[in-house]
Write a structure and sequence with these properties.
The chain is α+β, with helices and mostly antiparallel strands. Helices cover 54% and strands 8% of the residues. The protein has two domains: 5-30 and 48-109, no CATH class; 129-322, Up-down Bundle (Rhomboid-like fold), CATH 1.20.1540.10. It has 13 helices and eight strands. The strands form three sheets. A four-stranded antiparallel β-sheet has the order 2-5-6-4. The chain is rod-shaped and about 100 Å long.
Length: 323
């Protein structure tokens, strides 16, 4: 490993155009700092001091120093010369061609780097009260099912023929509050509390519940339409739970899409793959599992989450800068 000893010569008030000698090769004596050029000569566009060649010009010292590090990594010294337009990066003439090639490569690879963090909305309090209220409503509906055996299921379960032939559109919503047995109820309650809390804490209470309702009803409508005109009946809140998962996935894709970094669409596959993986792990299996309703709920949530996700201020500003 080659060690490089950095040396920084600060400017003085009397030498406004003095040179910043940053580093030297370890296998040769340190090159003494050159005398500052005549300001009048520089202003008139005179030659550079010595036989140094210009490898680049940068508006700030920080940017010039960053590119100078590339030159140091090549084992060559560099000088950063301030002028009226900013700073010029000077190198030895024999290294000029190689340095320019490396700097061009560095500039290409630095596009969009460092990546902007996906700014989140202002931190919201973890939302748990309304999901717990929703769980109490499910328990009340299940108790009512016990008091009126079969009647609520006949009137409120999702039935494709009843929806499209008889116009009983309320079934798209009421089916979400009915359950086949106690195990079905408990599993959906526990899953729903966590899934809905995540949605509401991320998107907000009002917008979150609105998108949950729209995605759940859309998912039920889609699965009913896919099975119509054949006989199809289902009930349970699992469509809403997977709609919540789709909302979170769609919103994450929306956030990536609004980010200003290059090749941002490649990052879309990360949240999408995560959502599809969770759908496969928890949305399939079992004799009486309605996989189709889970899939349509997730798809509806994905669409509504993307369409209903609003870009935050930082992401919107980045998008405006691109245009």
């Amino acid at each position: 490993m080659v060690s490089i000893r950095p040396l920084l010569l600060l400017r003085t008030r009397r030498a406004p155009a003095s040179l910043f000698l940053v580093a030297a090769k370890p296998d040769r004596p340190l090159i003494p700092s050159m005398p500052p050029p005549d300001p009048s000569q520089e202003a008139a566009g005179g030659p550079f001091p010595g036989d140094l060649a210009v490898a680049g010009a940068y508006p700030t010292a920080e940017e010039g120093f960053e590119h100078g590090l590339v030159v140091l990594a090549m084992g060559s010294p560099y000088w950063l010369v301030p002028d009226d337009a900013g700073f010029r990066l000077l190198v030895e003439p024999q290294a000029l061609e190689a340095v320019r090639g490396e700097l061009a490569c560095f500039d290409r690879e630095s596009i969009g780097w460092p990546p902007r963090p996906i700014a989140e909305d202002p931190l919201r309090r973890f939302e748990l009260s309304t999901p717990l209220l929703w769980a109490l409503v499910l328990m009340a509906a299940y108790c009512a099912q016990g008091l009126l055996p079969g009647r609520l299921e006949d009137a409120g379960a999702l039935d494709a023929q009843a929806v499209f032939d008889r116009g009983e559109w309320w079934r798209l919503g009421t089916a979400l509050f009915l359950h086949a047995d106690l195990g079905h109820l408990i599993s959906n309650m526990l899953s729903g509390i966590f899934a809905f809390s995540a949605v509401l804490s991320t998107i907000g209470r009002r917008r979150g519940w609105l998108l949950l309702a729209l995605a759940s009803v859309t998912g039920n409508l889609a699965i009913a339409a896919l099975n119509y005109p054949g006989p199809y009946r289902s009930l349970g809140a699992s469509t809403a739970i997977f709609a919540a998962l789709g909302l979170l996935t769609g919103r994450a894709i929306r956030a990536v899409q609004w980010d200003g970094r290059p090749h941002r669409w490649q990052a879309v596959f990360a949240p999408l793959a995560a959502g599809i993986t969770l759908l496969g792990l928890f949305g399939a299996g079992g004799l009486h599992i309605d996989v189709g309703a889970h899939a349509t709920g997730f798809a509806a949530g994905l669409i509504w989450g993307f369409a209903g996700g609003t870009p935050n201020q930082a992401a919107a500003s980045a998008q405006e800068r691109l245009h």
